[in-house]
């Protein structure tokens, strides 16, 4: 990776960190530079406006999500395929909990950007694409659960999981480790199938 690409990525990762800590209001060129440890003017060199910076950060989050979905998707597909018609809820819950705990900041960023998408169609479009990849991730689980309409069931699972994750991140005491239990996962799957 070139130094230019490294700097750009560092700026975008710093932007995402600021969004996780203080929402979109925390994102300024100077704050991003300070967070990334880069000299004044670096952000403007890559992103002429705050809007271009935020748009690029949304795309960066989509890249991160895509990598996660690829990794988890492969694991989930193998897990479901190996188990046949029975679903190992404990294993699924452990995989999803691990994903959330690995980067709780990414979850907060995702919710912040979903809300921003209600006011900005270009953000909404990228966030809906990211959501669609998570729906595709859960289709094999819906099929294994015997859902009549696996796509719709998977979409509903994403909505319910989002609510559960949101609650785990926002309604618990500071320092609480987010968790999706096997029972949570089983209830969600059974509800939609």
Care to give the gist of this entry?
The protein contains 9 helices and no strands.
Mean pLDDT: 89
Helix content: over 70%
Number of folding domains? 2
- Rg estimate, integer Å: 18 Å
The unreliable regions are none
Biggest β-sheet strands, sense, barrel: none
Strand residue percentage: under 5%
Termini separation (Å)?
45 Å
Give the overall shape, derived from the CA principal axes: elongated
**Count of helix runs:** 9
Q: Give the tally of β-strands.
A: 0
Q: Provide the succession of SSEs.
A: HHHHHHHHH
Derived structural class: mainly alpha
Describe the structure.
With 193 residues, the chain is mainly α. It has 2 domains: 1-48, Arc Repressor Mutant, subunit A (Orthogonal Bundle); 58-192. The chain contains 9 helices and no strands. Helix 1 (3-22) packs across helix 4 (50-83). The longest helix has 34 residues, at 50-83. The radius of gyration is 18 Å and the shape is elongated. The protein starts with a helix and ends with a helix. The model has no long low-confidence stretch (mean pLDDT 89).
Which helices and strands, and how do they pair?
Blueprint: H1 3-22, H2 29-36, H3 42-46, H4 50-83, H5 89-102, H6 104-117, H7 121-144, H8 150-170, H9 182-192
Helix pairs in contact: 1-2, 1-4, 1-6, 4-5, 4-7, 5-9, 6-7, 7-8, 8-9
Give keywords:
elongated, 193 residues, mainly alpha, 9 helices, Arc Repressor Mutant, subunit A, 2 domains
